[in-house]
Amino acid sequence: MALLEELEALRVEALRDIASAASPAELEKVRAGHIGRSGKLKELMGRIKEVPPTGKREAGQRLNAVKSEVEQAWEDRKTALADSAAAGPLPDPTLPGLTQAMGSLHPLTQAMDNFTGIFNRLGFSIRHGPEIEDVFHNFDALNMPDDHPVRDQADTFVLDDNAILRSQTSTVQVRVMEEHVGKYGGGRKMPPLRIVSPGRTYRPDAVDATHHYSFSQIEGLAVDRDVAFSDLKGFLALFARETFGEDTATRFRPSFFPFTEPSAELDISCVFCRGAGCRICKQQGWVELGGCGMVDPNVFDAVGIDSELFTGFAFGFGIERLAMFMLGIDDIRRFTENDLRFLRQF
Ligand code: DAH
């Protein structure tokens, strides 16, 4: 009989579609097509009137049986799909674990902390000064004559008549000594002073692998009765060995700075070739760290310290340069590019 054959075909097709529905949305489509209000089963039920009276009973039972079977299969599939969605995909035990990306200090900050830490242990306190300075602290008090070439506008960032971006951290020597004199007077009762001052400095230099318009220096100053050049040598030799290794040699070459007399440049044995001669030290075996010397009496006069009673030493090093030696970095621009591939190495 045609109706029962069609019914059997529908049953097979509906069960197959339900079993293969992969999502609730697909399953819903299957329901609408086969057992929904305008679905195939409904249509077949409507055709029961075509069946002759002798077969009506059997056809009716069969229709109801198929309806329940398909509905039940649909319900079961719906529950199964909901369960597997709730469980989610099985975890993959071979995947690497989740890690938290950790930040770290900038290599320059690490280097700076290292340098100030060494001097701190030697009894130097850490002081800071302003990056916008006046002419007195950047030049006058440091014994730089009015016609000194670095006062030229082309060598300093000038903001207005009496405001510049400091070109050196030596400014902080002046500020700290002024403050000290303000508290204790610059005479017999003045206690000794030992400070280091790390910070940014600015010069309108063209940028290349070893120059930048914004760089950092660490300044040092020690003032006491009877401070001698040998003290300066001792502290700086110790600093060099602590920073670059026990076998680091130091040498002092005569030089000139307006604020120190005598003045020297400090060299250390090349950290790359250990003194043998290489490209970095231009086959010299030595690299320059920075300037130093004995505080010029004119500087003491400018801040009101009695230069008959006190002597002092001072030094100033470029931090980027020291950090480049210490960390083996060949280009000063790396420090400011913020390239994470570089920064993550430290
Ligand atoms: N201020 C100098 C510069 O920027 C470095 C310097 C040299 C600082 C000698 C000092 C010093 O304190 O004694 O080139």
Strand content: 15-25%
On the 0 to 100 scale, the average pLDDT is 92
Note the run of SSEs as H and E: HHHHHEEHEEHEEHEEEHEHHH
Tell me the count of domains.
Answer: 2
Instruction: Please give the number of β-strands.
Output: 10
CATH superfamily of the largest domain: Bira Bifunctional Protein, Domain 2
- Measured between the Cα atoms of the first and last residue, the distance is 84 Å
CATH architecture verdict of the largest domain: 2-Layer Sandwich
Q: What is Rg?
A: 42 Å
CATH hierarchy, class of the largest domain:
Alpha Beta
CATH topology type of the largest domain: BirA Bifunctional Protein, domain 2
Main sheet: which strands, in order across?
Answer: 1-5-6-10-9-8-7
Helix percent reads 40-55%
Structural write-up:
Strands 1-5-6-10-9-8-7 form a 7-stranded mixed β-sheet, sandwiched between helices. It has a 3-stranded antiparallel β-sheet with strand order 2-4-3. It has helices at residues 2-20, 24-34, 40-46, 53-87, 107-121, 135-138, 170-184, 229-244, 297-303, 319-327, 334-337, 340-343, and strands spanning 125-126, 132-133, 158-160, 163-165, 193-202, 214-224, 250-257, 260-269, 286-295, 311-318. The protein contains 12 helices and 10 strands. It is rod-shaped, with a radius of gyration of 42 Å. The model has no long low-confidence stretch (mean pLDDT 92). The protein has 2 domains: 2-83; 107-343, Bira Bifunctional Protein, Domain 2 (BirA Bifunctional Protein, domain 2, 2-Layer Sandwich), CATH 3.30.930. 3,4-dihydroxyphenylalanine (DAH) binds next to strand 9 and strand 10.
